[in-house]
Amino acid sequence: MEYMKDLKQVIQSYPNIAIVNIGGIPAPQFQSMRSNLRGKITLIVAKNNLIDLVLKDMEGEKTGLYELSKLLDGQCALVGSTDNPFKLFKVMEATKTAAPAKGGELAPDDIEVKAGETSFKPGPIVGDLQQAGIPAAIEGGKVVIKKDKLLVKAGDPIPVKAAQMLAKLEIFPLTVGMNLMGVYENGLVFKADVLAIDEVKFMGDLYGAISGSFGVALKIGYTTPITIRPLISKAYNESMSLALFSAITNKTTIDKLVGMANSKMLALATKIPDALDDELKATLAGAVSAAAAAAPVEAPKKEEKKEEPKVTEEDAAAGLGALFG
Question: Which of 120, 182, 184, 204 could form a disulfide with 17 if both were Cys (CB 3.0 to 4.6 A apart)?
Fold first, then answer.
C-alpha cells in the first residue's frame, strides 16, 4: 500500500519518530497548522492499525520503535523530525490555540463568566443569556452581567446553550492543537508527561545546583578549570590573613604590618599625650584631624565625666620603650 510505503520512508528518513493525536481539530485549522509546520517536520495521517503494522514491521531496523504503538489512541498521525524530543514537544505545543465550544465537550477547566458590561444591545439576548444560566440584565441602556458566575465545572459537559453564549461573549474554553503522545529516539520512547517540563523551574533548579556544587567544590578544594582561579584567590587571602596574624614579614606583608603597627602606636599614643615628643604629637594631631573630617557629624551627647587614671612619667617612658624597642 502507498500509505505504508510513505510511513516506512518517514521512519527510515528521520532519527526521531513521534505519535501525535490530532482529534478534534477542525479541518481549516489543521491545514493551517500543517502548513506552518512544513519544513520542520513530516506528518502523515493514517489509520491506527496501519501505523501499528508499520511500527511492528520497522522494529527490526529501529529497536524499541514498536513501543510507540501503545500510544495510539483516537485519531493519530505519525511524525518524523530531526528535533530532539523536548524541542519537538514544544513545536507541537505551539500549534495549540483557544477554540469555542459547540456543546457536549467536557470542560478542561472551570468556565467562569465575570460580572460587567457586555457589547450587546438591549434585546432578546438578555433572555438567551439568562437561559444559559448567565445572570444578565439591562442597566443604563446596556446589557450587563450582574455578578460572577461559575457556568461549568471542570470535567462537566458544556451545555449547548452555554456554548452558544460563551462564543458570543468571545470566551473560548477549549484548546485545539496537536497533542504529542510520545517520541522515539535512540531506542527509547519518551512520553508526553516526561517531555512537559517547566523551563523556568528547570533552569532555576539547574542554576541552584551549579551554585551549590561550586560552593562545595571551593569548600573542599576540588580543582577544575572553573574553580582553580577562585581557589588560588581564596588560598592567597587565607595565607595573607595568617601571615598578618602571625606577623610574618616578607616583601608582601611588610607594608601591611608596618601600617598595622602604626595604627596601634597612634591608638596607644592618644592615651599618653604628655609623654610624646613634638614630632609624634604632630603626627597624632594630623591623624585625629583626618579621622574627625571623615567621621559623620553627630549631635553632641552629654556624658558623665569619668576620671582618667593618672599615668606617671616612668610608666609612659616604659610603654614607649616597649613599643619602639
Answer: 184
